[in-house]
Specification:
single chain, alpha/beta, about 55% helix, 3-stranded mixed sheet, 6-stranded parallel sheet
């Protein structure tokens, strides 16, 4: 591949993505509003520019990894410093930032109309995978757009994703829709990790032992296994700031409103995340959310890691099961809610399952129950009423110690609603009928 790459946005993810390109001996010039980051990038072998207008000069490829959709618009179209003023003819814009699904089509519209730059190619390419995979060039990238634009962008996309590049049908915005659905699960699971571990601590469990048991259970998720280790050791490093998932969850709930689709668990998640920000944790690692569940003893999860417990073996096993049931019940409902949203916004649900099952939004429940939802072959032995009973037991135990289970309470209400509608004796995946209807207009429903 030849041709200069302009890279805008050298935050935690963007820095790794840009330096990965440098390691592949590709010419990269970076831009970021934070001067120390630019200095680090130069030390890593890159070139630096002071404005978007400057960084895109002579660039064949322009990658945006800034924080918000509004920042992309500013970097592109600012009257004084915008990249639009010096964009090369036929430049390829690769928009990797997470924004609302309508954002990338809006960029295309502005280029074609107001700025008369139909020559500029545009690819919608949101990413997932974290800082380590960004630096290794193995990010999951969800690319969509016109076929010619995708072909032109492939050298850079392949360098950043390797085998984890997915081409999403549906035109500009389709990749962002997949990311939006993925973030439904990511947000729920980040919060569920804190809710579960705080509950375990409040129940008097050794939190390190609880983590080991729960990560091997049906309640586990990628986020639980990734976030919990930061809770049970003294670790102030910010791996992923709370503000990031707050932004993404806001995009999710706005997308649900735009599609006239009710999103119960993401709405609950959004409210609890907001309380975390208002408590001063916005710039902290999102695993710090565990502290808002324990305001009288914010470090209880850390203190009870490997600490002696007064619980009998029977009480310990019972309490672990209470926590596992909270996790598995929430992840069941979350998996259903996310997949039905995906179908509602027109995504290929089989491809969606393939992507999420290999990404950070995966959970044991998602992997096990989603194929049943897609095929109509409902083989789960638990019924809706079984999960209602399990969550009821956990909620009652939490109420007895005045502990809040925000996500579990919301999931229980949805499962109770499914039971009230006559689906209680059906396999637990029948909670999908709340959204999909008894006959299953989006998914096939149970087959004999």
């Amino acid at each position: 591949m030849s041709g200069k790459i302009a890279f805008l946005g050298l935050g935690a993810m963007g820095f790794g993505m840009a330096t990965n390109l440098l390691k592949r001996s590709l010419p990269v010039t970076g831009f970021d509003v934070w001067a120390p980051t630019l200095a680090r990038f130069v030390e890593a072998g890159g070139l630096a520019a002071s404005t978007p207008k400057e960084v895109v000069k002579d660039a064949q490829y322009v990658v945006f990894m800034v924080a918000t959709a509004a920042q992309i618009l500013s970097a592109l179209f600012d009257e004084e410093t915008g990249a639009i003023h010096t964009l090369e003819k036929g430049a390829v814009l690769i928009l990797c930032s997470t924004g609302p699904p309508e954002h990338v089509p809006k960029v295309r519209e502005l280029l074609d109309g107001k700025y008369e730059r139909k020559d500029v190619l545009v690819v919608d390419a949101p990413v997932s995978g974290g800082t380590i995979r960004a630096a290794n060039g193995t990010l999951t990238i969800l690319a969509s757009g016109p076929e010619g634009d995708l072909t032109a962008a492939r050298p850079v996309l392949d360098a950043m994703a390797g085998e984890n590049l997915y081409i999403i049908p549906g035109g500009l915005g389709a990749g962002t829709k997949v990311k939006m659905v993925h973030q439904v699960l990511a947000g729920i699971q980040i919060l569920m990790s804190s809710e579960a571990m705080a509950f375990a601590a409040a129940l008097g469990l050794d939190t390190k032992k609880a983590f080991e048991v729960l990560k091997a259970s049906e309640g586990t998720s990628w986020m639980f296994e990734n976030r919990t280790p930061h809770m049970i050791i003294e670790d102030e490093k910010v791996y992923s700031a709370l503000n990031i998932i707050v932004k993404d969850t806001g995009i999710v709930t706005a997308g649900g409103r735009s599609a006239n689709f009710p999103l119960f668990l993401p709405s609950t998640t959004e409210q609890v995340l907001a309380s975390g920000v208002s408590a001063g944790y916005g710039l902290k690692d999102d695993s710090a959310l565990v502290k808002i569940y324990l305001p009288q003893s914010p470090d209880l999860v850390l203190k009870q890691a490997s600490a002696p417990t007064s619980l009998s073996p029977e009480d310990e096993a019972r309490n672990l099961k209470l926590v596992e049931n909270v996790m598995s019940g929430v992840h069941l409902v979350g998996a259903v809610e996310a997949m039905i949203l995906g179908a509602k916004v027109g995504l290929d649900t089989k491809q969606l399952f393939e992507i999420i099952s290999g990404a950070a939004g995966n959970s044991w429940m998602f992997t096990d129950r989603t194929p049943q939802l897609l095929s109509g072959k409902w083989t789960a032995t638990k019924t809706v009423d079984d999960v209602v009973a399990e969550l009821t037991q956990s909620l009652e135990a939490a109420a007895s110690i005045k502990f809040p289970l925000h996500l579990a309470a919301t999931a229980l209400q949805l499962l109770q609603l499914a039971s009230l509608k006559g689906f209680g004796k059906e396999p637990d995946i029948a909670v999908s009928k709340i959204w999909d209807g008894a006959e299953g207009s989006l998914f096939p429903g149970a087959k004999a």
